[in-house]
Design a protein that fits this description.
Elements: H1 9-14, E1 22-23, E2 26-27, E3 29-30, H2 41-53, H3 64-84, E4 92-95, H4 98-113, E5 119-123, H5 132-141, E6 144-148, H6 158-164, E7 169-175, H7 187-196, E8 200-204, H8 216-219, E9 223-227, E10 238-242, H9 244-249, E11 260-262, E12 269-270, H10 284-300, H11 302-321, E13 326-329, E14 338-343, H12 348-357, E15 360-361, E16 363-365, H13 370-376, E17 381-385, H14 392-409
Parallel strand pairs: 3-15, 5-6, 5-7, 7-8, 8-9
Antiparallel strand pairs: 1-2, 4-10, 9-10, 11-12, 13-14, 14-17, 16-17
Helix pairs in contact: 2-10, 3-10, 4-5, 11-14, 12-14
The chain binds ligand C6P.
Ligand C6P binds next to helix 4.
């Protein structure tokens, strides 16, 4: 039996150069990880190494640099395939990020499969990226968008969902973990129920990919999308996973180089998967660095990271509950390390400025989930989201800074 390594948060912190910096003369406390995580040195080095050692276009040239760059790019694809438990590397499409992935499915699958009167189901919890692309394609195809309601804490109403599902439902596109509240949705049940009606399921994994063990085959989701920048990787790149037979049947999303087999003015034939969906020169250096980010997570252990983050979540929840007038929104058991809260008589934006003065970075506002805020009857929240490199001491600093800010603002 291999011995389990103890979780060493200091060792992890040392790998993130940005954590050494000061903000407003104070040590940076970075609690905006749900927006984007910081990057370990290895990821920064991987990007640097690509440009300084093997920069070349991929899948085209017959020279050493092109071969090396192509090999690294394709290694990253295999690494992603394993990270999410896909069956085939052809099922992994590199995108610009979560938003891009959802737009590809909504446009390409939607144009080919949606007809007048067909229904698409999303939920009240969705990020704008999983609302607007479906609104656009629904309008174009004459399809109908239905919304799963939530209770006052943000928990999905599954009974309402069951009633909504019918033979007309063609797609159920759901946020796996709420970015605004941190709640984990019961996606296994949603997928099972949807498949019983022959509807496909897309999971928006932007917030789940970093915290939860993802196995797309066990989940049996039809599409899964996420962004590299929230899993300690670079910005501007992400992943669309789709079941092979579905991607094969979908028309290309964009036309151009790389996605073709043969072009003539009379007729163009399209390339095989995954290249059919990767038109043009991709963001090669950043895609290569996705593998480095995944290696970092594997090395530290996703489960160990989750346990540490859960500990931070519990600690912060207990501390924040003691602050008078503070209400945690989405205060349920099944969640990841995201705490969203409102404070009586305090505007989130004023609070964020005072916290920033103490070197503490949080996100405030609607978190790109305006319909959710409307349903909850609030303008926005203050959101602290924790990563593997955060500490209990940093939470103590947040609590102190909050108490100080509340005194000033009330
Ligand atoms: N949420 C947040 O602060 P992109 O921008 O394409 O990488 O990801 C969009 C997106 C889609 N779905 C969910 C659930 C998300 O959380 C996000 C990004 C950030 O909550 C920035 S708005």
């Amino acid at each position: 039996m291999t011995e389990k390594k103890p979780f060493d948060v200091e060792k992890i912190r040392q790998q993130f150069p940005i954590l050494q910096r000061k903000v407003k003369g104070k040590d940076l406390v970075y609690f905006d990880n749900a927006a984007t995580s910081q990057k370990p040195q290895a990821v920064i080095d991987a990007i640097n190494s690509y440009y300084s050692k093997c920069n070349a276009n991929i899948h085209r040239g017959l020279h050493t640099l092109a071969d090396e760059a192509t090999a690294k790019y394709e290694e990253s694809r295999v690494s992603v395939k394993e990270f999410i438990g896909a069956a085939w590397h052809q099922e992994i499409i590199f995108t610009k990020g979560t938003t891009d992935g959802i737009n590809i499915v909504a446009s390409s699958w939607g144009r080919a499969n949606l007809n007048s009167g067909d229904e698409i189901i999303i939920s009240t919890l969705e990020h704008h990226s999983n609302i607007v692309p479906w609104q656009m394609i629904a309008e174009e195809r004459g399809a109908i968008l239905k919304i799963i309601p939530i209770d006052d804490e943000g928990v999905l109403d599954l009974e309402a969902f069951k009633k909504m599902l019918s033979e007309k439902t063609k797609m159920v596109s759901i946020i796996h973990v709420s970015n605004a509240l941190g709640i984990i949705n019961p996606v296994e049940e949603i997928i099972k129920l949807s498949h019983e009606k022959n509807a496909l399921v897309l999971l928006d994994g932007a917030q789940s990919a970093v915290h939860l063990a993802i196995d797309v085959q066990a989940l049996d989701c039809d599409f899964f999308v996420f962004s590299a920048h929230k899993i300690y990787g670079p910005t501007g790149v992400g992943v669309l996973y789709g079941k092979k037979h579905l991607l094969e049947a979908m028309p290309p999303y964009q036309g151009g180089g790389e996605m073709i087999k043969e072009v003539s003015f009379e007729k163009t034939t399209y390339n095989e998967l995954p290249f059919k969906f990767e038109a043009g020169t991709p963001n090669i250096g950043d895609v290569i660095a996705i593998k480095t980010a995944i290696d970092f997570i594997k090395e530290e252990g996703k489960e160990a990271m989750r346990q540490h983050e859960d500990h931070l979540l519990m600690y912060a929840t207990e501390k924040l509950r003691t602050i008078e007038g503070l209400k945690i929104i989405g205060d349920v058991l099944n969640k990841v390390s995201v705490i969203s809260f409102v404070i009586d008589g305090v505007h989130p934006q004023d609070l964020a400025i005072l916290l920033d003065n103490q070197g503490i970075a949080v996100r405030t506002g609607h978190h790109c989930a305006q319909p959710l805020m409307k349903r909850l009857g609030i303008v926005g929240t203050t959101r602290a989201s924790f990563a593997a490199y955060n500490t209990v001491e940093e939470i103590d600093k947040l609590v102190l800074a909050l108490n100080k800010a509340i005194k000033m603002l009330k």
